Amino acid sequence: MAERIAILGAGAVGGYLGGLWRHAGVDAVLIGRPRVAAAVAAQGMRLTGQAGGAILLAPERIAVATDARALADATLVVVAVKSAATAEAAAAIAAHAPAAAPVLTLQNGIANRDILAAHLPGRAVLRGSVTFNVAHDGARWHKATAGVLAVERHPATQALAARLAGRPGCPVLRDDMLAFAWGKLLLNLNNAVNALSGKPLRAELSARGYRRVLAASIAEALAVLEAAGIRPAKVGPLPPGLLAPFVRLPDALFNTVGLRLQKVDPAARSSMADDFAAGRASEIDRLNGEIVALAERHGRDAPVNRRIVALVRAAEAGGRRAWSAAELERAVLG
Question: Using the 8-state DSSP alphabet, how is residue 113 labeled?
Answer without folding.
Answer: H
